[in-house]
Amino acid sequence: MRPSNSDWKKKRLNQLVSTAQALQGRILGAFGNDDELREIGRITLQFADLEDSISLICEVLLMRPELRGFHTPKAVLQQFFTMKVDLLNKLTIAIGVLRSIDSGALEKAIENAKQTGELRNTIIHGCLNKRGDGTVVFQNKENEFAAELGALRLLSGKILQANEKLTAAFVTFYGELMELEPSAVEVERPMLQFLNSRLKLLESTIKLLTSKAVAEECQKDLDATKKKVRSSQASAREAKKRLKKSAELRSSSDGA
């Protein structure tokens, strides 16, 4: 059914206003300083790494003879993120059922990676919008994400952790599969070693970033303490001056 003229005009007007608000967020400089842009770059790179991890895990599972029934029109690496996640979930469930292996932990890690991807998409594919209360957010469809440095850093950490959890869950799952039903051992063993080395790298990176964040917080606390000390010293100097001036006035009064 064709919308009425009033409905059509209302829809166009709403979209026009939303687009203008997105542009206004950029014009007013409400978002986009060096630290914020740097964090978006970090999110982009870390998410690309997560996508590549999913692609690799899919290709590893597709090497299994019992999964020959799964056909992919092109390399997993070239597929969209949602397609990769859906494929990995199907492969995981299938091999778990066929070989009676618990796939719960891996399925949970896949879902976590999917949700993290949705948050990332809200930023990368969203528009900036300024709310009535002045808060600037990224909007993509029905999703919103706060356009501020703290939230971006949290997401950056979530992506890294999602990658680590996914890799850890798959290493356990794949190790059980190899013990139960080895296939191409000449490929599977080196791949498991590679995945274990990837897992250690991810764990080390998380520890390093956590330590860095703690160090930054400590530095902030130290700077705040120094500021308070300087303020206290300035107050003490002012009090000393007032005391000295008061003593001089009293001395002059006594002399008179």
What does this molecule look like?
It is a single chain. With 256 residues, the protein is mostly helical. The chain has a domain at 31-203. It is 76% helix and 5% strand. It has 6 helices and 3 strands. Strands 1-2-3 form a 3-stranded antiparallel β-sheet. The chain starts with a helix and ends with a helix. The model has no long low-confidence stretch (mean pLDDT 85).
What is this entry, summarized?
Helices cover 76% and strands 5% of the residues. It has helices spanning 5-27, 34-62, 81-99, 104-124, 149-180, 185-255, and strands at residues 127-130, 136-140, 143-146.
Q: Which characteristics define this entry?
A:
76% helix, 256 residues, 3-stranded antiparallel beta sheet, 6 helices, single chain, mainly alpha
Write the layout of secondary structure elements.
Layout: H1 5-27, H2 34-62, H3 81-99, H4 104-124, E1 127-130, E2 136-140, E3 143-146, H5 149-180, H6 185-255
Antiparallel strand pairs: 1-2, 2-3
Helix pairs in contact: 2-3, 2-4, 2-5, 3-4, 4-5, 5-6
Quantity of strands, as a count:
3
Helix content: over 70%
- Rounded to the nearest angstrom, the radius of gyration is 29 Å
Number of helices: 6
Output mean pLDDT: 85
- Low-confidence segments, given as residue ranges, are none
Largest sheet: 3 strands, antiparallel
What global shape is seen?
Answer: flat
**Euclidean distance between termini CA atoms:** 101 Å
Strand line-up across the major sheet: 1-2-3
Structural class: mainly alpha
